[in-house]
From TrEMBL:
Molecular function as annotated in GO: cysteine-type deubiquitinase activity; ubiquitin binding
One annotated GO biological process: proteolysis
Record's keyword terms, sorted: Hydrolase, Protease, Thiol protease, Ubl conjugation pathway
Cited CDD domains: Otubain_C65
Pfam family, one: Peptidase_C65
Organism (species): Lentinula aciculospora
Taxonomic classification: Eukaryota, Fungi, Dikarya, Basidiomycota, Agaricomycotina
Identification of the protein by name: ubiquitinyl hydrolase 1
Annotated OTU domain residues: 129-362
Length: 364
């Protein structure tokens, strides 16, 4: 996963809960019982709703409405100007606006939004400890990579060569999956969908048409096909981690408990199944400053594994409001430095806390 914005899901799958009430809610009082207590500066799952200011309640409501609108978007959307994203932050975080301006100055003019697998009918909302949270399903990272991976083949200067190279890598993956214990009958349909999609870039269909970006978008907006490809990429990521335990085992920790996890346990809980996190809500600055390919963050582990097994060059721009002077950190995930893929133009993703989209920049 890429991990979408978090919450808890306990209520009915078809129900929604929105915080409503008067503009001046009843506040908790101070210890002497005379004055309203100061509103909390940080809202967590343990925060009591009655301690929030009217502005904070309004903000929670607005965030909920925004997130509900997000799950109504297609699984993969058409390219949109990054100015649309900027407009969403203009009345909020100035640091995010600065970072978006920085991306625009570097030639990143557009984004293609993706989302996880939940539909609006199954997107569940609940109040935990009187605070509203929402939980996505974590597939946006894999869906973004999958779409950008095939789109890159379509846009390649020599698509036939690019497809041949991709197929030579892809055709070796079923054996790798079997070698770590996946049964062929479990993954063969998912593999065939991705294999056929890659081939269609250069192999005409019955009408004589090869795959183009418009058709690719329609394919990825189809729930069954899109999610089948996501599942296969998750399996490949899991296989790479299992095949190389010496590299990955030191970095496998439970994202909430912080406890070390075994390779098998980690993969079964956080990689194999859809709807699990591909990332935590942070980027490790130490990892960046030391030039390491990944660190203990779950997203870095999975990105490194997927990049390696498919020999993909992936750049992730971290829009997290933390960059100095509005700059954006780019973290690079590359296969072996000696491979041709390591020097090819990268797939570029945009990370915002809890979510990944495709970042569209200048053609290289």
């Amino acid at each position: 996963m890429a991990q979408d914005t978090e919450s808890s899901a306990q209520s009915s799958p078809n129900s929604s809960t929105i915080i409503t009430g008067p503009t001046s809610p009843h506040y908790a009082t101070s210890s002497d019982g005379t004055l309203p207590a100061e509103p909390p500066t940080e809202i967590t799952e343990d925060t009591d709703l009655t301690t929030l200011s009217a502005a904070q309640v309004y903000e929670l409501n607005q965030n909920l409405l925004d997130l509900t609108a997000d799950v109504q978007r297609p699984l993969v959307a058409s390219v949109a100007p990054i100015a649309e994203l900027r407009a969403e932050y203009e009345n909020g975080s100035h640091s995010f606006v600065q970072q978006i301006d920085y991306l625009q100055s570097q030639g990143y003019s557009s984004i293609r939004r993706t989302r996880g697998s939940l539909s609006i009918s199954t997107f569940r909302i609940d109040i935990i400890s009187k605070i509203l949270f929402m939980k996505g399903d974590g597939d946006c990272f894999y869906r973004s990579v999958a779409f950008a991976y095939v789109e890159k083949l379509i846009d390649a200067p020599e698509p036939a060569i690019a497809v041949a190279e991709a197929l030579s890598i892809l055709e070796a993956t079923p054996k790798l999956l079997e070698s770590v214990g996946f049964e062929n009958m479990v993954f063969e349909d998912f593999y065939e969908m991705l294999d056929e999609l890659v081939r269609s870039v250069v192999s005409p269909d019955a009408a004589g048409n090869t795959l183009n970006e418009e058709t690719l978008l329609k394919i990825f907006q189809n729930f069954e096909t899109s999610n089948s490809i996501v599942v296969y990429l998750r399996m490949l990521t899991s296989a790479q981690i299992r095949l190389d335990p010496e590299t990955f085992a030191p970095f496998l920790f439970h994202p909430e408990l912080g406890e070390p996890m075994g390779v098998r346990e980690f993969c079964e809980h956080f990689v194999d199944a859809t709807g699990k996190e591909a990332g935590m809500f942070k980027v490790c600055s130490s990892c960046i400053s030391h030039g390491l390919p990944f660190c203990g963050s779950i997203d870095h582990v999975q990105m490194t594994a997927l990049s390696k097994i498919l020999r993909l060059n992936v750049d992730v721009a971290y829009l997290d409001g933390r960059g100095s002077n509005g700059q954006v950190e780019f973290v690079k995930f590359q296969p072996e430095e000696t491979s041709e893929a390591a020097t090819s133009s990268p797939i570029c993703l945009l990370y915002r806390p809890g979510h990944y989209d495709i970042l569209v920049g200048p053609r290289r």
